[in-house]
Structure formats: structure tokens, C-alpha cells
């Protein structure tokens, strides 16, 4: 719930799908919003502001002055000090006294200078806050502040520390209860006098880019049926006026008006509000565009965080490990077997790359004899599963699950950090695509999706390399000895078909990485009515619309 969302209703509905429903005020609004006063220069404007404050202060009317920055509030404070006007400055530098200053800003003769962001959320009571006044008088009479901690409420153990403390507290409470009715009566009488003077006067020294912030300042007056007034003082030197003021207005004021005279017209005030509306629409479009870019990262973040939650929650990761194994093998086949024609395959490159993942017992001849990429996939996956089961027998299922959990979480975190940096780099220059007649948002979505896919494939590849080469040095307290992911490459493959111990981490037992003797393989017998010859990236023949490799091909 907010009192200033109506000016942003269109953006809230169109961008965030949030409806804005105005609720009638509990009591009739009595505040008078006077037209803006526009001066030629900022010096003339602040001079008029000080004069207005001096005149109303002499009558006793409480005044709240709003500025757009700490520097402007301090400048105005110095000018008021020169005129002998006692005042309080509320500019987010006095955190401990902020509530006290705002609570007493409605007393007779009070002048409070505040920035737009300070003091919101606290009602300014006409006549003052009686509870705070009574508390301050109790403290002024010499009562120890410790007995008034947390509004006279102390933890039970402290209440029993000493009878003298309890006695002092009872005395303070009694004095507080004695003074409270007196201050209530005093504040009520002051409130009546202030209402007769017109209530709280809110004076804005400059218009903000957003009408919402101006309305928040105005809303300090006229609360709960109290009278009040508000007015903004502007100059042609203000940021908003320099951007949107017409040349005609500047020409007229420069030729016909002296510095200390102002233009006051509802037509000019409406023109300024239209300028604010233009700025709001521009800023809204910027936020909407940023949100569209953020949606791409948000969807990717959901996928990564879901997988991390599965890891951290202790879920069985065997299925995830098998998915990574299949993804790594699939990416290798797509890289080295780019078509269904076997004479175009890089058989030597595939065989060599496989040995960087595990001590593969697959010869180049076996790969070349395969009739399709699906047959190559079956051949490689069978060898991968055989070696994975061998690792499970060597390390033990429980130890392997623990290693998989640690390795998977580490790889995901590392790759995700790198991906975020790459996406930031992409976003920095994505708007330049417009020069090539391309939609930057579409290019961001397309390339972001491709980079995310590459990251997920990299996670699978790194995971397989780690798990297939990890060595447990101490059986009692497993310590994982693995190679840095970025250092594995086809150059690490030795002539005998396995990764050298020195390059795979230094302490790896070569006997565990040595290739086993090739067992004679039986030819794969396939039903002539199945879809085994279907390319893995082609649509599944079942008509589901999904790729064959993630549909019926996933069970092959």
C-alpha cells in the first residue's frame, strides 16, 4: 500500500502486471496546493524561499522545506542562520535524531529543512508528539536513560538485578504518567492554534524528475483531515527547467522581469508536470527494457539454482551423473561426426579426444565401422558406462557419490561465475548490433541461450573428466586429487592411450588409468523397424516435436 503510486499506474500495469486501486481518504483533503513560482536564477529563488519562511515563521506556522540534495539543504540552512531562524536539518546525516526531529516538526514556529528521501514514514503531528515530549522532560530532570530503554521494557533477567534499579524505574514511570496528560493538553492547544494558521506549510525548493517524489513531499501536510498548504519554488537554473523549459519562457523572463519577480501561472505548472511525465515515461521504458534483459538471466539462474539445490539437499546424483555423461558424449559426437556420412568423420580426433575423458578402449577401426552417429553414440556410451562402473567398484558407491557431489557443486559454481562475466561482457556491447540492423534484445536472447548451452556442456565435460580421473589417496579420509579443468586437453594423451600421472595431478596411480585389454565386441543387432538410423538432432519420428536424442533416442 502506498499513497503515491497513481502517477506510476501505467508502468505498474504494463510492466509488472500490478493493478493500482485508489482508495478514498478517511477524511476530506483540506490541503491547498498553490501554483509554482518560477524565478530567473537560483539565487533569486532561494532569496524568495528565505523571505517566505521568515514571514510564516513570524506567525508561528510550522514549515517543512524540501530540497533535492544534501548540498542544497546545507546551503539553505546557512541562509536561514544568517536571518536568525532556528531550524532543524534532516538530510539523512542524523540517523539517531531523525524520528525526534520529524515528530516535533509540527510544533508552533518549527522550521525543518529536509531532503526528499529523509523523514518519510513518520506522521508530523500538529502541536507535537506528547509521548516524546513527556519522555524528554523525564530525562531532562536527571533520570538515568538506562531505565527508559526500549520504552521502559527490559529483559526479565535485568529486572531482577537490583532493587534500586526497580525503584528508579518505577519512579520514572510514575513521573512519565504524570507528565503525559499535561503534554497531551499542551499539544492539543498548540494543534488548534496551528490549524487556525493554516496547518503545516510544505515548501519545495525544486521539482524532481518524478511527480511521485514531489507528491510524497506534499503529502506531509494535510494528513488525517488537518489543513495544510504546499508550494514549489523553481528557477530556470534547475535541472528539470534547463532540460524542458521552452525558449519562449526563458526569453520572456529575461526581457521583461527583474530577478526578484516570479511567474505564477497554473498553465506553467501544468507544463512542468507534463515535462515530468515525459521523464517518467522515458525512465519507465528504460526499466522495462532492463527487465527484458534480466528475464534471460533469470531463467538461466533458475536452472542453475535448481541443480545446486538438488546437490545441497542430498538428493541422489547418480541420474544427474548419467545425464552429464550422455551430454559429454553427445557433444563429442556432434563435434567430430558432423554428418551421417562416415567418410566425413574425424575418427582419429574423436578417438584421441575420448582418451582425455577416460582410458577409452575404443579403436579408430571400431568407430569407422559404425553405420551411423547413433551407432557411434551407442559404442561410446557402452564403453563409458563400463569404465564408470569400474570406477564405482574401485572407489565404492558411497565414496563415489560423495566425490560426485563435491565435484559437481565446484564445477557448477566455477562455470556459472565465468558465464556471468561473459554475459556482462556481451551486454556491454550488445546495443551496437543495432548498427547492423539487428534487434539488440533478440541478439541478447539468442547469444545468451547459446552461451548458456555451451556452459552446460562444459559442466558435463568437466564433470566427466574429473570423475573418471579422480584418485582417493587416503581410504579413511578421502582426499580428491584432480587436475585443474582448464589444463585437460588432447595434448595430455600419451601414445599408449592414457593421461600421464604427472599431467593428471601428480599423484594419480597410472595403473588405474591404463587402458584395459579390448574385449571382443559383438555386432549390435537392431530391429529393422526401429528408428536407430535417425540423426540425434533430427525431429523424433514419433511426432512429439522433440529432438530424437531427448525423446526415443534417449533410451537407445
TrEMBL record:
A single GO molecular-function term is:
ATP binding
User: Where is it located?
Assistant: Membrane
Its membrane topology:
Peripheral membrane protein
Q: Which residues form the SecA family profile domain?
A: 1-264
Question: What Pfam families does the entry give?
Answer: P-loop_SecA, SEC-C, SecA_SW
| Gene Ontology biological-process annotations | intracellular protein transport; protein import; protein targeting; protein transport by the Sec complex
Question: Keywords on this record?
Answer: ATP-binding, Cytoplasm, Membrane, Metal-binding, Nucleotide-binding, Protein transport, Translocase, Translocation, Transport, Zinc
Xref: InterPro entries? P-loop_NTPase, SEC_C_motif, SecA, SecA_CS, SecA_motor_DEAD, SecA_SF2_C, SecA_Wing/Scaffold, SecA_Wing/Scaffold_sf
Q: What is its main location?
A: membrane
Gene Ontology cellular-component terms listed: cell envelope Sec protein transport complex; cytosol; plasma membrane
The cofactor(s) it depends on are: Zn(2+)
Family statement drawn from the similarity comment of this UniProt entry: Belongs to the SecA family.
The name on file for this protein is Unannotated protein
Amino acid at each position: 500500500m502506498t499513497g503515491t503510486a497513481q502517477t506510476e499506474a501505467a508502468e505498474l500495469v504494463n510492466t509488472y502486471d500490478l493493478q493500482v486501486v485508489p482508495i478514498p481518504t478517511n477524511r476530506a483533503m483540506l490541503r491547498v496546493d498553490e501554483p509554482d513560482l518560477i524565478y530567473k536564477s537560483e539565487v533569486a529563488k532561494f532569496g524568495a524561499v528565505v523571505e517566505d519562511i521568515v514571514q510564516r515563521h513570524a506567525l508561528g506556522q510550522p514549515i517543512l522545506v524540501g530540497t533535492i540534495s544534501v548540498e542544497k539543504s546545507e546551503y539553505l540552512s546557512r541562509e536561514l542562520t544568517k536571518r536568525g531562524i532556528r531550524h532543524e536539518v534532516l538530510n539523512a546525516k542524523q540517523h539517531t535524531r531523525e524520528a525526534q526531529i520529524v515528530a516535533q516538526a509540527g510544533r508552533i514556529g518549527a522550521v525543518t529543512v529536509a531532503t526528499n528521501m529523509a523523514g518519510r514514514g513518520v506522521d508530523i503531528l500538529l502541536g507535537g508528539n506528547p509521548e516524546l515530549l513527556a519522555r524528554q522532560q523525564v530525562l531532562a530532570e536527571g533520570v538515568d536513560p538506562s531505565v527508559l530503554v526500549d520504552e521502559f521494557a527490559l529483559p526479565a533477567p535485568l529486572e531482577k538485578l537490583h532493587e534500586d534499579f526497580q525503584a528508579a524505574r518505577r519512579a520514572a514511570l510514575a513521573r512519565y504518567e504524570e507528565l503525559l496528560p499535561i503534554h497531551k493538553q499542551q499539544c492539543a492547544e498548540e494543534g488548534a492554534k496551528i490549524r487556525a494558521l493554516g496547518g503545516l506549510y510544505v515548501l519545495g525548493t525544486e521539482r524532481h524528475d518524478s511527480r511521485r517524489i514531489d507528491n510524497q513531499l506534499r503529502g506531509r501536510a494535510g494528513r488525517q483531515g488537518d489543513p495544510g498548504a504546499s508550494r514549489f519554488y523553481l528557477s530556470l537554473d534547475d535541472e528539470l527547467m534547463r532540460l524542458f523549459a521552452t525558449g519562449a519562457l526563458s526569453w520572456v523572463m529575461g526581457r521583461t522581469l527583474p530577478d526578484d519577480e516570479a511567474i505564477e501561472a497554473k498553465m506553467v505548472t501544468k507544463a512542468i508536470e507534463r515535462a515530468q511525465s515525459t521523464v517518467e515515461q522515458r525512465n519507465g521504458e528504460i526499466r522495462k527494457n532492463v527487465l527484458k534483459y534480466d528475464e534471460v538471466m533469470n531463467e538461466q539462474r533458475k536452472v542453475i539454482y535448481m541443480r545446486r539445490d538438488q546437490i545441497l539437499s542430498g538428493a541422489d546424483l547418480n541420474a544427474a551423473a548419467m545425464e552429464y555423461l550422455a551430454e559429454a558424449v553427445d557433444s563429442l559426437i556432434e563435434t567430430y561426426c558432423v554428418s551421417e556420412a562416415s567418410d566425413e568423420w574425424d575418427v582419429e580426433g574423436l578417438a584421441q579426444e575420448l582418451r582425455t575423458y577416460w582410458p577409452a578402449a575404443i579403436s579408430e577401426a571400431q568407430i569407422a565401422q559404425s553405420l551411423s552417429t547413433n551407432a557411434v553414440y551407442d559404442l561410446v556410451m557402452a564403453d563409458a558406462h563400463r569404465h564408470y562402473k569400474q570406477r564405482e567398484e574401485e572407489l565404492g558407491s558411497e565414496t563415489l557419490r560423495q566425490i560426485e557431489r563435491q565435484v559437481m557443486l565446484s564445477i557448477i559454481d566455477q562455470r556459472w561465475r565465468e558465464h556471468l562475466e561473459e554475459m556482462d561482457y556481451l551486454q556491454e556491447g550488445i546495443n551496437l548490433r543495432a548498427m547492423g540492423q539487428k534487434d539488440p534484445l533478440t541478439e541478447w536472447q539468442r547469444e545468451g541461450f547459446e552461451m548458456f548451452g555451451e556452459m552446460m556442456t562444459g559442466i558435463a565435460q568437466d564433470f566427466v573428466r574429473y570423475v573418471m580421473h579422480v584418485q582417493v589417496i587416503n581410504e579413511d579420509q578421502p582426499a580428491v586429487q584432480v587436475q585443474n579443468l582448464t589444463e585437460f586437453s588432447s595434448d595430455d594423451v600419451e601414445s599408449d592411450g592414457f593421461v600421464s600421472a604427472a599431467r593428471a595431478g601428480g599423484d594419480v596411480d597410472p595403473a588405474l588409468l591404463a587402458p584395459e585389454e579390448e574385449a571382443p565386441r559383438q555386432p549390435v543387432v537392431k530391429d529393422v523397424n526401429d528408428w536407430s538410423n535417425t540423426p540425434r538432432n533430427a525431429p523424433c519420428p514419433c511426432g512429439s516435436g522433440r529432438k530424437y536424442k531427448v525423446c526415443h533416442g534417449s533410451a537407445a
